[in-house]
Amino acid sequence: MQAHRKLLLALSILIVVGSLGWTTSYALHQRSESFRLEMSGKLSKFFELPCTIGRIRGHTFSSRLFEDVDIRLPQSRGRVFHCKSAIWQEHDEGGQDFNELALVDGELILGSDEWAKSDYRQVLESGLDHDFEELRLRRVSLEKFEIAFDRRGFVIRCRETAGSIDMSNPGDGVATLNAFELNGVRIGQGVRILARFKPKRAIEVNEIRLDLPMVPLTTLGIVPQIGTIKSGSFAGSLTYVNRPDAAEVGLRGELNDVDLSELTTQLPTGPLHGTLSINVDRARLVNGAFTDLRGRGRVEGLLLSSLAPLLNLPSLEGKASLRLESIDLRNGNLARLDLSGALTGLSVDEWLMPIGRGRATGRLAIRINNLELAEDSIKSADIELTLKPLAESPGTIDRELLLTAAEKALQFSWPSALPKEILPQKVPYVECGVRLLVKDNELRILGTHGPNRDTILTISVFGKPFGIVKEQRGTIDLSPWIDQVLTQARDYSADDLRDWWQSAGSRSTGN
After folding, report:
1. Count of CB atoms within 10 A of residue 176's CB?
2. Residue 39: how many CA atoms within 13 Å on its side-chain side?
3. Sign of torsion, CA 349 353 359 364?
4. Ramachandran category for residue 270: left, alpha or beta (phi over 0 → left; psi -120 to 50 → alpha)
5. How far apart are CA 8 and CA 80, in angstroms?
6. Which residues of 73-94 are buried (b: 16+ CB within 10 A; e: fewer)?
7. Fewer CB within 10 Å, N side or C side of the chain?
8. Within 13 Å and on the Cβ side, how many CA atoms surround 478?
9. How many CB atoms lie under 10 A from the CB of residue 264?
């Protein structure tokens, strides 16, 4: 954003003050009221903005001290820059002249949503269209400064800021600063601020980067863009990139223990409950919406009840712990998701309900050895479902449920040696397990036990185990089912999701 170009505006203000005010002597005229008014008027004319200087006096034989320098927007709409003390120092080393500027105890406003468009235009066009290279300024130091920026939901307010700006290379300026308070939170280890710019005509800041120790996520100043988040912490770098057509924020680092209910509070199906942690290799927000995210992480304590609406189930018991081996979100689309994990504390009846009528007893567990989603397909999957009787009672499966699951869900051909009619209403079982393997949307259903590891269901016949349901040859094409899911997902367009995300953030800030 061009608003960041004012990072050099305040510096150029003091540069011009120094160059316009410098003389070869310390005459009393320099300390007079008329000289102060004269210099304030020249500064205002130069920048076409209201400027005042509280006091000017000599400092050493080669330096001058300016006190209480103020730059304001037209019609008193706000202050751009203030500095209680600025020292302009001239040097002569080896026949080469250069200058340095020291700024102490001040405030620099980089931008605000309260400013009118005309304010930005006047500040940028009148204040920065000058050639500062002729002033031979090599270094600017700052001490006890406050730097503030609040634009399009991105907020930076750094206090107790100190550091230096290297302008010795006319083609590449580098600012290196440290702040010990960020957005009202004391940071004992300090926040490192880096900025790169071109210190020539039409000065423009390319980017600003903050290197952060572990801090509360709310400290980052991007919470209005990412919802009603009050939990979690972050360590790493945050970069604001100057784009002519968009506000872009980049993140790299470690994101820990975000409450998913806060992150997903406005989901149409209700919030998810659990905690999310991510090692962020790269994340990008453009105009307040995530467009890119690459990294890996984990989800812990995810309550499956919050997923029931997505699966069209009335309820779901249990929790899930997932390892996100790889996350790749590109341009708002999921390019890849590779995960593994386990689901525990499950209710058998709830998971078997979509298959058919009837009930089953026992303990159900689901283990995801691997699930890789890429673009619009399941590239690979290895998932095991196991149903075992409880220790205190034998396990049973209602006959109607067993027949429906075997013939329709598992495409099982019933053995002639065991007529269906002789099955009791409640069939006792010894073990039940299925392994689901997927390759490019083609599903194979395998057994998990038995002499050849090909048995899906073992029942008890007169007290003896009998493997009744075996794995079948062939595969099942999941493409129609995936297309149905994607069709439902596409009902929420990218624009709708972005508007929902931003409205959630607006509600969190009361706007």
Report:
1. 12
2. 28
3. negative
4. left
5. 12
6. beeeeeebbbbebbbbbbeeee
7. C
8. 20
9. 19
